[in-house]
Amino acid sequence: MDLNVAVLGATGAVGMELLSLLEGGALPVAGLRCFASERSAGTSVPFRGGTVPVENAERADFAGIDVAFFSAGAERSRRYGPRAAAAGAVVIDNSSAFRMDPDVPLVVPEINAEALAGHRGIVANPNCTTIVALMAVAPLHREAGARSLRVASYQAASGAGARAMAELKEQTSAILAGRPAKAAVFPSPLAFNVIPHIGHFLPDGSTEEERKLRDESRKILSLPGLSVSAICVRVPVLRSHCVACWLGTERPLSAARAREVLAAAEGVKVVDDPGALAYPMPVLATGEGPVIVGRIRVDEADGAGVSFFVAGDQLLKGAALNAVQIAEALLARGLFPRPAGPEHGRGSSGGH
Amino acid sequence: MDLNVAVLGATGAVGMELLSLLEGGALPVAGLRCFASERSAGTSVPFRGGTVPVENAERADFAGIDVAFFSAGAERSRRYGPRAAAAGAVVIDNSSAFRMDPDVPLVVPEINAEALAGHRGIVANPNCTTIVALMAVAPLHREAGARSLRVASYQAASGAGARAMAELKEQTSAILAGRPAKAAVFPSPLAFNVIPHIGHFLPDGSTEEERKLRDESRKILSLPGLSVSAICVRVPVLRSHCVACWLGTERPLSAARAREVLAAAEGVKVVDDPGALAYPMPVLATGEGPVIVGRIRVDEADGAGVSFFVAGDQLLKGAALNAVQIAEALLARGLFPRPAGPEHGRGSSGGH
């Protein structure tokens, strides 16, 4: 079937990647509509040689839309998501609005596509850093059982959107010219600096980003008791996140076996040949679909475990590509339009 | 006593910081001589309004020098260090040449100044990342007993010297202007990138930097069996290293108690007030003597432990300042000139 597709947030960093993937033929697109809040409505975005008008989401009739990609922040997702779903669309939401809702599948297709079966019109796309880390963690978990996960992140400006990427460039130019760097999107200047603060701080001293990494990892891996400790840090990179990971495992895992398991995993590329100076870096991951894993070593400080380094394009696998892959997985499983019937019908409010 | 001081590598990034500290009155300097290999000899460096000629280390007579700061790489330290020590100087060596030599004290004065007592004319200044991490780890170890240490580093260009800092600026300008970035000092372009590769790779898949962090931590803390796992990463920061640390402890340690212990530790500044957006960053650490510690939280995945983030000026506490503090500690302990007598005399070759 060809899909009528909607995009909310088409002019953002993730939205532009989404349109680029759709132009490249990622999904069978019958028609495209773009939505924004009142402020941005009335403009247009280029698509397939023409332009698509940006409609006001507030007054929009979402009827006839099969899949709606939302990437305009949690507040707008909460505002327009349920309405789009009620009109019959499957909303694939890139924000944090619904991720921890037990009725909403939180999906990385290579890891837990089976969770899509229970969807009720909204599917959540996980946090970008979580996706990048779990693409490497999940295959190792299937092999040896995840016991604990420690993550130090190296997150690009793109994770904070297109304005943040522009701000990093402006700050960098200013510093090189001997002028002071101004910060508006970031809490401090990011150019030639690193900032261990992503998202708001929570009462326990963690940031929202660190909490997402913990809670979303547990949900995606179906390991509610997994110990996850994260230190999330913004670095002056424009695009592509990296994570340094220590994964404690239930069963012993050699570096060679971890490498084999990862090499066989879908969506993962092992680049781990120090002799050839081959290891994951943002410049290697940018524009690539698979995440790149390397620096794989055994870490047996507290029982079995491995450490490794992952790089992934935050805008692609960390956001737009994963969202498109969710749509492809729904299509492949016959879950478009969303399942009808007493349990999954549009009017159902029963638990799942 | 006033000291006759020599500097080898005076025009390097660390050498310039050393001269600046000496100009600022860090040590009672009676006289200053500067040395370099034949290629650089004949130039001069500014000092106290005048200039000091750079002498050829190859032909140099080190007689009369009390303390010689070496910061020109391991090869030159191995070449000239024993000669300077034989001439009566105490060599404070910033390279890796002698750090793991059991006859050479490896000293961070706030942590193990007592190791200086056994010196035989050469004292090693530890690796910069190791110093920055251990300044926070050591007080917590004294309080609760270190069991395991995991470190992900965010290392500035300064760690690779003045040429590396210039290269990062050139690469950044090139990328902002749409030109390709060229890498000579770094294995790949560092601008808007991160590189999980510092020092050569070793047969076990670790880098030299990661090995130094393990071996030097064990020696400085006198914990030969300490489990240390490091992932060392270069980031596009000009100066000041950061480390994300997970420290497993023998005894329970609350975040509040860890904060108290660190606040009372010499050379450490606790900046850990998320509500006021206060946490360690390279921009805060640059030019500061103390290392900055924050983001302190409990991590009990594998027993007692804490996680935290540290920023320290790589050129100051990570190198030049620690070297000067070693000289001050030697002076305070009456270990200048180096101890005479059968056990520590110049001609002694006995074990220690």
What are the main properties of this structure?
Dihydrodipicolinate Reductase, domain 2; 13 strands; six-stranded mixed sheet; homodimer
In DSSP terms, counting alpha (H) and pi (I) runs of 4 or more, how many helices of chain A?
9
Tell me how many strands of chain A there are.
Answer: 13
Instruction: Please report the two chains with the greatest interface, counting residues with C-beta closer than 8 angstroms to the partner's C-beta.
Output: A-B, 54 and 54 residues
- What's the story with the biggest beta sheet of chain A? 7 strands, mixed
**Residue-averaged pLDDT of chain A:** 93
Number of domains of chain A: 2
Structural class of chain A: alpha/beta
Q: What is the correct CATH architecture of the largest domain in chain A?
A: 2-Layer Sandwich
Largest sheet: spatial strand order of chain A? 3-4-2-1-5-6-7
Query: Based on CA inertia axes, which overall geometry of chain A fits?
Result: globular
Low-pLDDT segments of chain A: 339-352
Helix content range of the residues of chain A, please? 25-40%
By CATH, the topology of the largest domain in chain A is Dihydrodipicolinate Reductase, domain 2
Portion of residues in beta strands of chain A equals: 15-25%
Whole-number radius of gyration of chain A? 20 Å
Order of helices and strands of chain A: EHEEEEHEHEHEHHEEHEHEEH
What's the CATH class label of the largest domain in chain A?
Alpha Beta
CATH superfamily of the largest domain in chain A, by name, is Dihydrodipicolinate Reductase, domain 2
Oligomerization: homodimer
